[in-house]
Each structure stands twice: as structure tokens, then as C-alpha cells.
Design brief:
The N terminus is likely disordered. This protein has 329 residues and is an alpha/beta fold. It has 2 domains: 212 residues, Rossmann fold (3-Layer(aba) Sandwich), CATH 3.40.50.300; 101 residues, Helicase, Ruva Protein, domain 3. It contains 14 helices and 11 strands.
Length: 329
């Protein structure tokens, strides 16, 4: 009886997830890919690094998703003069009480949009990345747990790199996925223009999922079946980035400076399970792994200057690896 109840609850959650797309779509046009990756990150406790030009509704999408999931949302604009205390909080002296009080920063929220994270110095970036990794911050002598669930969507502007502080590779590796958002289609942009130019446009949405649903979905995703052959397939994909010549990728071996870290195999496993769950299945298909491979790997494969000179991208490398590496059943 209990198994039946759990199955029914899982189907209910999967149906509600489809409603989330519909509800977000009432406000945001054509960003289902971003919403999908945000939900994968939220349901698997992974953080997202997003690269795209300004004006692609990143803030609107995250804010709308937070409302649909009944979660707290904070947007932090990273600037060169930002301090770690502006992010995590600080001690404030209360003259009336003659003591110090803790003032928590905006990082104490469920969904955080770290806008243009590469605009702030390393110490501010490190403060956020430490919070992402440890799920806690220290203010004064006290350590405070961050709210749950906790998801960071950090954005980078790929166009204007002047006066920026690029994230070191070791820190970028802490993000589960790096996704690229492109311009909308003509049809989508026409709809965007019509909506945004309508002064009476209503951007109110209803709550579809709660925090309790998010925690329950995390457990359900953890129970999604990933066969041993697909587990080994993930390992083969990761090792192909580290030892490309052994996989017949001799040309790619000249371009790859460093392959993907063990975090890549962990995150690919989790993301593939989430893709299967969001698609209404309790088992992972090879297509699920291939769907998220580029997002998990494209910031973990470090290319050399020769690749840049020849116009070779990590996306090209990942596509070649996916075509070359076979599944051993």
C-alpha cells in the first residue's frame, strides 16, 4: 500500500512540474530551457552558471520561478566595490542595547541571482562560492546555516570583459552546469514585445509546488534507476576528456589542456536522473545523459591557446566525444 501511495505522489509531482512550465510561461516567453535547468539544479542541489547577453529575462525568469515554487528570491548585482559583508551580512553595533547584532545579508534566501559575478573581486566571489559549497556562513564568531532549498544562478556577460575578474577554473568547477542562453526567435520576440508593451499586462502567477514538494522530489529523483552500463558510460565520457588519445580522439588531444574533474561524473549522474524524472520516467536513458553532457562539461574542459586560435570550442569537443564513445552493454 505504501509503495502505491509513493508512486501516486511521484506522478502527482511529475504532473505539477509540467504545470510549472505552463505557469512560468504566462510571464516569461521562450525560456523553457533555462527553467528546466534551474529546476534540475534546484532538485539536485546544484548551482547554475549562466552565460548570455543582457536583456534575456534572466531576473524575470528566476523571480517568476521563485513565486511559482513559493520560494524567497534575492538578486545581487556584483560590482567592483562590493564587499563580502554586503553578501553574507555583518555585525552592527546597537547603541541602545550597547551590543553587536547580526544583520544577515541577501545570501540568506532560497533562490539567489548573482548578476555578473565576474564584476566583483576574488574575495567577494570566494564568499559566495564558500556559501554555495558549505551551505553556511560565518558572521563574527557564529556560524549560520543557509535557508533550504538553496540555489545560486550566477550570470556572466560574454561580450564586455573589460574590468572583470574571471572566475578561476577551480571555482567554476563548483557549478553543476554552465548554460548558454541565446536570443529569442522572431516569434518569441514578437510575443515578448506585445506583452511588455501592454501596460495592463498581469504578471501574477499561482503557487504550484512548495518547499516540502521540492524536498520530496529530491528523494524521488534519488530513486530513479541508473543502470550499471550507463554508470560506466558516464565514466567513459569523463575519462575521454582526460585521455582523449586513448579514445581515438587524437585531434582533440591537441586542444584539451585539462579534462573534467570527478565533480563532472557526480553531476552528470544527478542531472541525468533529474532529466528522466522531469520527463515522467523512473529510469535513465542514454539520451538523458547526452542531453545534459554539454551543460555539465563545457566549463570543466579547459582548452589551450591552440584551440582558441583554431576556433574550437568545448561544445565541439563534447559533441565529438559523444559521437565517439559507445555504451558497452
Amino acid at each position: 500500500m505504501e509503495a502505491t501511495v509513493n508512486t501516486d505522489l511521484k506522478k502527482e509531482h511529475q504532473a505539477k512540474v509540467k504545470e510549472v512550465y505552463t505557469e512560468v510561461g504566462k510571464v516569461v516567453v521562450g525560456q523553457s530551457y533555462m527553467v528546466n535547468r534551474l529546476m534540475i539544479g534546484l532538485f539536485t542541489q546544484g548551482h547554475i552558471l549562466l552565460e548570455g547577453v543582457p536583456g534575456l529575462a534572466k531576473t524575470l525568469t528566476v523571480n517568476t520561478l521563485a513565486n511559482v515554487l513559493h520560494l524567497d528570491f534575492k538578486r545581487i548585482q556584483f560590482t567592483p566595490d562590493l564587499l563580502p559583508a554586503d553578501l553574507i551580512g555583518t555585525m552592527i553595533y546597537n547603541q541602545k542595547a550597547s551590543n553587536f547584532e547580526v544583520k544577515k545579508g541577501p545570501v540568506f534566501s532560497n533562490l539567489i541571482l548573482a548578476d555578473e559575478i565576474n564584476r566583483s573581486p576574488a574575495k567577494v566571489q570566494s564568499a559566495l562560492l564558500e556559501a554555495m559549497q558549505e551551505k553556511q556562513v560565518t558572521i563574527g564568531e557564529e556560524t549560520y546555516k543557509l535557508d533550504k532549498p538553496f540555489l545560486v544562478l550566477a550570470t556572466q556577460n560574454p561580450v564586455d570583459q573589460e574590468g572583470t575578474y574571471p572566475l578561476p577554473e577551480a571555482q567554476v568547477d563548483r557549478f553543476m552546469m554552465k548554460i548558454h542562453i541565446d536570443y529569442p526567435t522572431k516569434e518569441d520576440e514578437l510575443e515578448i514585445m506585445r506583452r511588455m508593451s501592454n501596460m495592463s499586462f498581469d504578471n501574477e502567477v499561482k503557487t504550484i509546488l512548495t518547499k516540502e514538494d521540492v524536498f520530496a522530489i529530491r528523494k524521488e529523483i534519488n530513486e530513479v534507476n541508473l543502470s550499471e552500463s550507463l554508470e560506466k558510460y558516464i565514466i567513459e565520457l569523463i575519462f575521454a576528456t582526460r585521455q582523449p588519445a586513448e579514445y581515438g580522439l587524437k585531434e582533440e588531444a591537441h586542444y584539451i589542456q585539462f579534462g573534467a574533474s570527478p565533480r563532472a561524473s557526480i553531476n552528470m549522474n544527478l542531472a541525468a536522473k533529474a532529466v528522466a524524472f522531469l520527463d515522467g520516467r523512473d529510469f535513465v536513458l542514454p539520451e538523458d545523459i547526452k542531453e545534459i553532457a554539454a551543460d555539465v562539461l563545457n566549463h570543466r574542459i579547459i582548452l589551450n591557446y591552440e584551440a582558441e586560435a583554431d576556433g574550437v570550442t568545448t561544445h565541439d569537443i563534447v559533441n565529438t566525444i559523444l559521437n565517439k564513445v559507445n555504451i558497452n552493454r
